[in-house]
Design brief:
heterotrimer, A alpha/beta, B alpha/beta, C alpha+beta, B: 5-stranded mixed sheet, two-stranded parallel sheet, C: alpha+beta, 12% strand
Chain lengths: 207, 179, 368
């Protein structure tokens, strides 16, 4: 018995496969990556979250920058409680060895891209505490600093213009402290261990 | 100085002279009196003062008299009711300095003694908490507030300084080069 | 249930100042607590021995960061007591005005600090906005917003700028109009009432055991034990002001006292401007080169009433151009160390930052 002929819509349509040459690429993969990077930098620069960590004296001016008069939030910057979700680590002022241990601990918990801004002259050359037995003289041997803000202590106007410069540096791709940390990790680690000894915080009760 | 405060001070000074003849009044500045006492009288005098109204221990301080080879400990007591301050000063030898603790009289002395142990190296017999470090972690030199500890030399040796190329004027380079 | 080790650590939104409290927590209650200071330790007492007497004026405001003028005042008072120098009348009144304005700034900062633990962030915004305006006044008088370096041994550094009296008094008239709004925002708010009232008690025996001074002492003991009343300095015996006292000290009482003290400070400033005589504002201490100025031999302890309690320096001089020893008594040393060790266990975990703030622990003056 011959097969019943079903309506034509039940039979798949056979097309002739044609090979077509791909058109010449107008955008190279490198240019495509650069464009995506530029878009990413724009978004990163306009929504920076800083970590709640008042390290030293210059931190007195920080609540004044955050609140109504010199509103930091109009630049997109907000405080954030946990380092896992923060972008900027503000080293406000001097760093002693004990603070440096905690700073390294915190910095390595932050996710890339991350930026470090140092306030005042104490991170540059020790500032007014240059002859103190407990204060470091140079911060950028231990953590990669992207921007220094001058002043002892810097006025809120100086802090705001520093933040705008940071935004400019991020948008143009020049704030690459975190990449430097990844590439020269052994050098940073060697300096840190030489100064600090161990990056581990002992429990007060068991010592 | 009002007359009533003068009479209070005179009466109290007479009592002190009667009970502790070894306590020498070193300086009287109105509301602040400094006494030099012997280390063996320390607890008795403190207990007597605490019962007479000097209920607050403001602080305990150490001074390093390196030329005389002695440490001086100053106990700072304040009487809020009358507004009089007493500074008791004792001297102990500089090598192997030891003092009995006063935490059984003033409980707040526990941390002051811990701080003095860390900065001067004075041992407080009876206060085991004072042997732990408080402000400094992994400290590797002399106790810092002694006079033979040079803070500037220690800082120069331990913390790397920034090298500045001293070229000034328009042709000078930026000093913050990443090295 | 086992105990969990937590660090109420230096990186915490409720921690003002860089200190760490190591906690052992079981469930929701703190079982053991210890303060681990030392992150803000700069070795001031050693650095002060390496600088000249007048050069120290630039270094010492940084000892207590929240309230820098008390450092300058105790240093100047101590040096003047050792050298036995009298300063002009006008300088005493100007010093009183500066100290009271700094007290207002410190109280406002500490009231703004309860915003993080309780969640009422509006408090912080309002307080910092007013502090900004007051810091502009300080900038006009002294040149710097925070570290003034204005009170020096011998008086104050320079005369007040013209027109500052009108500016300050107009500002405080405006500020007094806002105090009822602050009270309505903070102290009639049901959240704040639930968190602060009958919480974090401070009995009188604890005050005497630890040696707490300041608002904690006055709100627990019931007597006006204030350095300005008991051993007055700088013409505080010529102005009239009240010191709030109570016999039941919980966090709510201590916070209300700060508002009352702000009002009394404004009253003192107004009286000081009325009573201020004309004349010079400083005495030349160093006849000749200020770098070679020596202070005669002697030792003294000078104290002032800061926003947190009795703050003092013990100064030892041996007749040279540099101090022999300066020891700092931080006003919140007792409650920061022994208070945390003995009396923080038992509070709830979310009240730990509130304990730290309402007891008035200021870390830079403990660590120096």
């Amino acid at each position: 018995m011959p097969k019943k002929q079903l309506p034509s819509r039940f039979y798949p349509v056979k097309h002739e496969m044609q090979t077509v040459e791909a058109p010449a690429e107008k955008i190279s993969p490198q240019q495509r990556a650069e464009t995506w990077e530029k878009i990413a930098q724009y978004f990163r620069a306009n929504s920076l979250w800083m970590l709640n960590y008042c390290t030293g004296c210059c931190a007195i001016e920080l609540p004044l920058v955050m609140t109504s008069r010199f509103d930091m939030e109009r630049l997109g910057m907000m405080p954030m409680a946990t380092p896992r979700q923060a972008d900027i680590l503000l080293v406000t002022g001097y760093a002693s060895l004990k603070t440096l241990r905690r700073l390294i601990y915190t910095y390595e918990q932050m996710g890339t891209p991350k930026y470090v801004v140092a306030f005042g002259p104490c991170a540059v050359n020790g500032g007014i505490y240059h002859d103190a037995y407990a204060v470091l003289n140079r911060l950028d041997l231990y953590l990669p600093v992207d921007l220094y803000i001058a002043g002892c202590m810097p006025k809120p106007e100086a802090v705001m213009s520093g933040f705008m410069k940071l935004i400019e540096l991020i948008e143009s791709g020049k704030a690459t402290g975190w990449k430097d940390y990844e590439q020269r990790y052994e050098w940073y680690k060697k300096n840190q261990l030489e100064a600090v000894g161990e990056v581990f915080i002992h429990d007060e009760f068991h010592e | 100085m009002t007359n009533s405060m003068n009479s209070v001070k005179a009466r109290w000074a007479a009592q002190m002279r009667g009970m502790f003849p070894d306590a020498r009044l070193k300086k009287d500045r109105g509301t602040e009196m400094t006494y030099e006492i012997l280390p063996r009288d320390l607890h008795q005098i403190l207990a007597y003062l605490k019962n007479s109204g000097w209920r607050q221990l403001s602080m305990i301080t150490g001074v390093d008299w390196i030329e005389e080879g002695q440490f001086e400990l100053v106990y700072n007591l304040f009487d809020w009711e009358q507004g009089l301050r007493v500074l008791l000063s004792i001297r102990i030898g500089r090598d192997k300095p030891q003092v009995l603790t006063i935490t059984n009289i003033y409980a707040g002395a526990q941390y002051y003694e811990r701080e003095i142990h860390e900065f001067f190296g004075i041992e407080f017999i009876g206060n085991e908490d004072a042997l732990k470090s408080l402000f400094l972690e992994r400290w590797d030199a002399l106790p810092p507030l002694r006079k033979d500890f040079d803070s500037r030399a220690y800082s120069d040796k331990k913390y790397v300084k920034r090298f500045y190329d001293p070229v000034y004027g328009p042709q000078g380079g930026a000093p913050f080069e990443r090295s | 249930m086992s105990e969990v080790k937590l660090f109420f650590g230096p990186q915490h939104p409720g921690m003002h100042g860089n200190a760490s409290v190591h906690l052992y927590v079981e469930g929701d209650t703190v079982k053991k607590a210890r303060l681990v200071p030392g992150m803000l330790h700069r070795g001031f007492e050693k650095s002060m021995e390496n600088h000249t007497w007048m050069g120290n004026v630039a270094l010492i405001p940084r000892v207590c960061v929240a309230e820098p003028d008390i450092n300058e005042m105790v240093f100047a008072q101590g040096v003047e007591a050792i050298a036995e120098i009298d300063i002009p009348e006008r300088a005493h009144y100007i010093r009183m005005i500066i100290m009271e304005m700094t007290r207002i700034l410190a109280h406002m900062m500490s009231l703004g600090a309860i915003s993080s633990p309780t969640g009422l962030y509006t408090v912080n915004h309002w307080m910092q906005a007013d502090r900004n305006d007051m810091m502009d006044i300080f900038e006009e008088i002294t040149g710097h917003r925070v570290y003034h370096m204005y009170i020096v041994p011998g008086g104050v550094r320079r005369e007040l700028p013209p027109g500052i009296e009108k500016r300050i008094l107009d500002y405080f008239t405006e500020f007094e109009r806002r105090i009822p709004e602050y009270q309505a925002l903070v102290f009639e708010n049901p959240t704040i009432l639930a968190r602060l009232k009958d919480n974090i008690l401070l009995p009188a025996e604890v005050v005497w055991e630890l040696g707490v001074t300041g608002i904690g002492m006055r709100s627990a003991v019931g007597k006006p034990y204030d350095v300005r009343k008991v051993t007055p300095y700088a013409r505080y015996d010529q102005v009239e002001f009240e010191v709030p006292v109570a016999t039941y000290s919980d966090a709510y009482t201590r916070s209300i006292f700060k508002v009352i003290e702000i009002k009394e400070s404004i009253r003192i400033i107004r009286q000081a401007f009325d009573m201020m005589p004309d004349g010079k504002v400083n005495v030349k201490m160093a006849a000749g080169n200020a770098l070679k100025w020596t202070v005669p031999k002697g030792q003294t302890y000078s104290a002032v009433e800061s926003a947190r309690g009795e703050f003092g320096y013990y100064i030892v001089s041996d007749g040279k151009t540099q101090p022999y020893r300066i020891a700092v008594r931080g006003a919140s040393f007792p409650q920061g160390f022994l208070g945390v060790e003995r009396y923080m266990p038992g509070v709830r975990l979310d009240d730990a930052p509130l304990w730290y703030d309402t007891m008035g622990v200021c870390t830079p003056e403990i660590d120096r």
